[in-house]
């Protein structure tokens, strides 16, 4: 077994100290290259967990180590650079910058991270390659303002942006919930291909349990998050 | 550099409001430059009009008024002075030369000035530059006229053209001296002073055309034709004023006092430089008011920009979050918004400069034609560039306000996208 890419230990997270913790996770190890599905009802702490894995916030107590780096030891500006270099994001909807073209949207992260830029090589060429791969090779599409693309097309552009420059971790936060059932699985398969191509670890969050079967590993968040359990126990 | 590209694309995406903001800044900058240029060039234009004249003498009135009508042909003289007083003062041993002037008539909107040939010899403008003829020579015959360059150009006159002098100084006059036409015998070189817009005739000619007139109207029944008038006594009795050059500058004050205390007639002698200074003092209030107004207009333009950027912030929270999720740090967000302010300000200032020069090209000749003020189409002065620098600097400082708000927002929002 190789070293985990993400290592969570005795992690506790509160939005503020007066309140009950939102997350309380004894241990969570994520292997490099894994396709992890995290599922849970709303309020189960999904967003908080993603913020921690995305190095947006730091745990109240306990530790989270990403790529061997203890995130709580980093200052917020260092976390920003860390995130820019190592993590790609896809969100639920409206992922694109409206005034940039499709290609410019894809290459956006490379302008904020030297390492992703150097890994991507020729930005435009790489962006076109990724877009072609994702079935967006029609030159007419490239001329369109991105706001006129369909939701499915927009999500594929967002996927290309997340994987450009081969970040080690891709975080996908409900990326399929705005898509039709038919296109969902196709999108996930494309995403898998891109992640293998860039050998990125995929962390995919959704409330749709049924998608979990497609992934290497499936976590039902309430199973590992003891925050609610302790809260209930305290009552 | 990439932030500047992003900022320009973001602005292009909001073309309409961006162009309005740039237009507001451009208009205010053009106004500021115009005020500044008018201020400087008007002064220069006035200062260049007269040179080498030590004293100007006229009927007692205000010194600025005397300066304005005798040199700048603005306004009208209140009263005339007698030829005897002129001869008396000119005979003073301190006096080197004298130019008598007689105003009150006009030719198609251009002032007619009666004088003698000493005028062409002694009058100096700009830096001691004498008058020169572009063609012809000084008047010799009674009905000869010498016209300024602007008169010749505007009315298309050449040597030999016949002109009729109208009574009164207005643009339109219903009574003229049609019975005694003049012939153009000389055209002066361009001086960029009111001389260009003056028709010069001899003092005797002024007498001749008014010989059958009294108190500003033709005497009924009395009509003396041009040839008969030649034979009559045409030595001037009244003139409007005169300019004096002294043998020594040191005696200026002495002679000025003597003239001001002249017993026979109430006279006023002014030193042109001193009177100009009085004029500046009078105008400095208006000047300052204009500058303050243009500063406020600039401020309004910049506040408009601030309002535009601030009001866009809320709808752009998502855009900021996307940028953040793509790796932009809060400092990049600050840079992006500051770049927008810089772009708007620089584009505004540049279009303002273009607008200003356009205005200068279009209205410059009109102003010169109407007011004799010459606006030079020259490069921006160091002072003007400094003013523009201040405008851009204030825009950047103001741009920090929305940048700071966006910074706070992006710290609060993180990378999560709120609907």
Verbal overview:
The complex is a heterodimer of chains A (235) and B (419). Chain A has 235 residues and is an alpha/beta fold. Chain A has one domain: P-loop containing nucleotide triphosphate hydrolases (Rossmann fold, 3-Layer(aba) Sandwich). Chain A is 38% helix and 20% strand. Chain A has ten helices and nine strands. Chain B has 419 residues and is α+β, with helices and mostly antiparallel strands. Chain B has 13 helices and 17 strands. In chain B, the strands form four sheets. In chain B, strands 1, 3, 4, 7, 8, 9, 10, 11, 12, 16 and 17 form an eleven-stranded mixed sheet that branches. Chain B has a two-stranded antiparallel sheet with strand order 2-15. In chain B, strands 5-6 form a two-stranded antiparallel ribbon. In chain B, a hairpin with a 3-residue loop joins strand 5 (124-125) and strand 6 (129-130). Chain B is elongated and about 105 Å long. Chain B starts with a helix and ends in a 6-residue tail after the last helix. The interface between A and B is medium-sized, with 29 and 22 residues.
Individual helix count of chain A:
10
Give me the strand/helix succession of chain A: EEEHEEHEHHHHHEHEEHH
Instruction: Identify the CATH architecture of chain A.
Output: 3-Layer(aba) Sandwich
Examine the coordinates and then state which fold CATH places here, giving the name of the CATH topology of chain A.
Answer: Rossmann fold
Let me know the average pLDDT of chain A.
85
CATH class of chain A: Alpha Beta
Number of strands of chain A: 9
- N- and C-termini, Cα separation of chain B: 30 Å
Whole-number count of domains of chain B? 2
Our measurement of the CA-to-CA distance between the termini of chain A, rounded to an integer number of angstroms, reads 41 Å
How much of the sequence of chain B is in beta strands? 15-25%
Radius of gyration of chain A: 18 Å
* Shape verdict of chain A: globular
